[in-house]
Amino acid sequence: MTDSGEVVAPGHPDYERLRLPALPNYHHIRPRAIVRCFNTDDVTQALAHARESGTHITPRGGGHCFAGRSSTNGIVIDLTPMNDVSVQDGMAVIGAGARLAEVYAGLDRHGLTLPAGCGPAVGIAGLTLGGGLGLLGRRHGLTSDRLRAAQVVLPDGAVVDCAADREPGLFWALRGAGGGQFGVVTKLVFDPVPAERTTRFVLTWPGTGARDVLRAWQEIAPDAPDELSANLKIDAQRVIVFGAGEPGDLVDLAPATSDISTMPYHELKQSFDDLGDLGPGPVTSRSEFFRRSLPDQAVTTLLAGLAPGRELNFTPMGGAYNRVPATATAFAHRAERFMIEHVSADADWVHRSWAGVHHHASGRVYPNFPDPHLDDPLTAYHGENLARLKDFKAHYDPTRLLNFPQSL
Ligand SMILES: Cc1cc2nc3c(=O)[nH]c(=O)nc-3n(C[C@H](O)[C@H](O)[C@H](O)COP(=O)(O)OP(=O)(O)OC[C@H]3O[C@@H](n4cnc5c(N)ncnc54)[C@H](O)[C@@H]3O)c2cc1C
Q1: Is 379 helix (H, G, I), strand (E, B) or coil?
Q2: Could you tell me the strand order of the sheet in which 85-88 lies?
Q3: Angle between the N-to-C axes of helices 296-304 and 210-220, in degrees from 0 to 180, rounded to the nearest 10
């Protein structure tokens, strides 16, 4: 391994492995080159080359973007080698290429963690730049709410350290607008939280229980104590409520199986790594936020569409997520009760299922779950923060070096 960026082009022995993002939906895209970056200079040089040659360029952290935005036929800036995780003066200092499993393991050694997502190979950078929902989120907020500083290479090559008191506009915009908009983040500094022993629960019901559980979950989960994060997953065969915290009223819904135990937080996290894998092929997923419970008729319609290979995921919001004003950071979705995600290899069903409940939704969409099919995507992702974000885009990336469908 050298200390400078390594250019991996077609024909290189590592090309086929390195070019692949996480989602098979985008495995057909063949970059002209992947630049493996080991330090900030490597990123600066890759951006300079793109500027001078007019080549499309995109940063990649964990490669998990649902819309394939970290894939391009041009140049991929692969930040994977920049994956250091350390604790300095009580702050978590994390390289932008780190994956969540590395972040949790690195912080757990210090008895610390972050409110962040479940997928172990998801990148901390992509997750944070779009918000970051996870099992500690109702208690501690978004991953981006814990961000205290970041280092960014701007499209013009300038390296900027931003925080609340340094380049505050950029720091504001980085917290929730989604990745790849203003520059390439190379380092993230977070205020971590204690990694405490936590109650883990998995409650299951047969598929026939879906209606009752969903009706109750909509009322209980978004208003639960901050310590409880109860996610709901429904497929044709079964209903699962799982998460962290004391499940409280959810146990009164008479689950068929109930697994409740207390364990170190990092073990709890790992135990949910593989829940709900729909298999190795491409899947389509669409989601929206909701501010009100679905009426009974909508619940009936939603559940009637389920069949093997189709899945509905419900994520609770509320709690600390909603105690931050919508304009305090770029993440505008601070009044939502829950999110519904429709997932299947059967894209037609995903569209039908999404459309079936769309008129009950708030019209807002989580920037980390981008959806190429939205009519007005920028309003859906950014709400009242859109105008300010467009100004920052024009300021920091006037030539639109970082560009993708639905970018600011
Ligand atoms: C299996 C799976 C599990 C998930 N679980 C969760 C979850 O529990 N909670 C949750 O909130 N979300 C979750 N997500 C969504 C996830 O937050 C987004 O997909 C996120 O954007 C992934 O970040 P990444 O770095 O892995 O992806 P990438 O595809 O590498 O990046 C995503 C976007 O950010 C940009 N980007 C990446 N790195 C940088 C950088 N250093 N500087 C600037 N821009 C950058 C990319 O260009 C791209 O536009 C999950 C997604 C998947 C596929």
Answers
A1: helix
A2: 85-88, 91-95, 184-190, 147-153, 159-163
A3: 130
Place of tokens 């203003």: 182
Domain 6-78 falls under CATH 3.30.43.10: yes
Mean pLDDT of the chain: 95
Q: Rounded to whole angstroms, how far apart are CA atoms 37 and 173?
A: 24
Q: What is the pTM of this model?
A: 0.96
Q: Which of 7, 75, 15 is nearest to 36 (CA)?
A: 7
Mutational test site, ligand 1, from 129, 271, 314, max ligand atoms within 8 Å of CB: 129
CATH number of 85-194+383-396: 3.30.465.10
pLDDT at 2: 40
Which pLDDT does position 47 carry in this prediction?
97
Can you tell me which residue has the tokens 């944070």? 128
Which tokens hold the place of 396?
């920091």
Distance of alpha carbon 179 from alpha carbon 174, whole angstroms? 8
The CB of 70 under 6 Å from ligand 1? The reply is yes
